[in-house]
Amino acid sequence: MVLLLSALMVLAGLPVAAPERAGWPVDGARVVRRFDPPPRPWLPGHRGTDKAAAPRSVVRAAAAGTIVFAGQVAGRGVVSVAHPGGLRTTYEPVDVQTRRPGDAVAAGEALGTLAAGHPGCPSAACLHWGLRRGADYLDPLTLLGLGRVRLLPL
C-alpha cells in the first residue's frame, strides 16, 4: 500500500519524502488558510498556506537549501529557498535584512521576521508559505507530512 501511494504521489508531482529535517517556518503559528490550487494554472487559487503568528516572529527555512531570491515583490518582502530535489519554498511577507541570493541556509535557520499586513489574514500577521517543483505549486504541508492525500486514477 505504501509503495502504491508513493507511486501515485510521484505521478501527481507531489513530494514523496520531505527534505531532510523539514520543520515549521514560524514557531507558534497556526494554519488559517490551506492550500487550494486552481483547476487550471491560469485561474485564481491559493497556492500555499497562511499561518497566523505574532508580527516580528522569526521566519525560518523549513529545510536546508540556498536562497535564490530575497527582496520586494509588489511591496512585500519575499524570500525563496531552493532545496535539493528541485523543490523551492517561498515565504512572505518577510522583513529581510542580511540575507542575499546565494546564501546557504540550514533547516530552522532564520530568514527574517514576519511583517504585518498579509491580505486576507484574520490576525495581525500571517506568513504565506509556498512550495513549488518547477512550475507546479504543491501543498507545503506535505513537507511536514500534513498535506492532503489524494488518490489518482491509474
Number of strands: 11
The topology string of helices and strands comes to HEEEEEEEEEEE
CATH class: Mainly Beta
CATH T-level topology? Glucose Permease (Domain IIA)
Mean pLDDT: 81
Secondary-structure-based class equals mainly beta
Tally of contiguous helical segments: 1
- Radius of gyration from the CA trace? 15 Å
* Measured distance between first and last alpha carbons: 14 Å
CATH fourth-tier homologous superfamily: Glucose Permease (Domain IIA)
Shape: globular
Question: Could you characterize the architecture of this molecule?
Answer:
The chain is mainly beta and 154 residues long. The chain has a single domain (19-144), classed as Glucose Permease (Domain IIA) (Distorted Sandwich). The chain has one helix and eleven strands; from the N terminus they run H-E-E-E-E-E-E-E-E-E-E-E. It has one helix spanning 2-11; strands at residues 30-33, 49-52, 58-60, 65-73, 76-83, 87-92, 94-95, 104-105, 110-114, 126-133, 136-138. The strands form two sheets. Strands 1, 2, 4, 5, 6, 8, 10 and 11 form an eight-stranded antiparallel β-sheet that branches. Strand 5 (76-83) and strand 6 (87-92) form a beta hairpin. The protein is globular and about 45 Å long.
Summarize the structure.
The protein is mostly beta strands and 154 residues long. The chain has one helix at residues 2-11; strands at 30-33, 49-52, 58-60, 65-73, 76-83, 87-92, 94-95, 104-105, 110-114, 126-133, 136-138.
